[in-house]
Design brief:
By secondary structure, the protein is mainly alpha-helical. About 75% of the residues lie in helices and about 0% in strands. It contains nine helices and no strands. Helix 1 crosses helix 3, helix 5 packs antiparallel against helix 6 and helix 7 crosses helix 9. It is elongated, with a radius of gyration of 21 Å. The N and C termini lie far apart (about 70 Å). The relative contact order is 0.11.
């Protein structure tokens, strides 16, 4: 019985060490970090709740923060020219804090349209006048693949 307790404590130390290592590289969402720990340590399935215990300890020490992660990710994704749909989809895989995601993505549609316009100009240069339908459709698909809504894309073209 005592050896099982020792194994649990040793595994908890290894999990914490790995979590701190990963967090030292970059911010992570809680869900994303948990998945990485489960992948690295298969034996953790024998100890239910251990990963949550380690993650709670990381939160307690302020090493892990979904809010900090979401804020940083949204800023970085916007700098890369990604729209709200793509950002939201990625964050759903990495964190379970939908409320924080919505707060950090809450911008006016026109602000997202301005970002879409910048993305278009960066990719295609300044376009003067009207485009052929085929070329406009191509550019619209490009913006759609970046995660912009239809209304944001139309505003970017006007």
């Amino acid at each position: 019985m005592e050896s099982e307790q020792d194994e649990r404590q040793e595994l908890a130390k290894q999990l914490e060490s790995r979590a701190v290592y990963l967090l030292s590289m970059r911010e992570h969402g809680r869900k994303e970090l948990a998945n990485k720990l489960f992948q690295k340590f298969a034996e953790v399935e024998n100890y239910p709740g251990l990963v949550d215990f380690v993650l709670d300890k990381c939160v307690e020490n302020n090493w892990l923060s979904d809010e900090r992660y979401i804020e940083a990710y949204v800023r970085q994704a916007m700098e890369k020219g990604q729209g709200p749909y793509k950002i939201r989809q990625t964050l759903r895989l990495r964190t379970s804090r939908e409320d924080l995601v919505e707060v950090h993505l809450a911008m006016e549609d026109s602000d997202w349209a301005d970002l879409a316009k910048e993305v278009l100009q960066k990719k295609y240069g300044k376009s003067s006048g009207s485009l052929e339908r085929k070329e406009q459709a191509k550019r619209m698909r490009f913006l759609q693949s970046r995660g912009f809504s239809q209304s944001q894309i139309w505003k970017a073209f006007n």
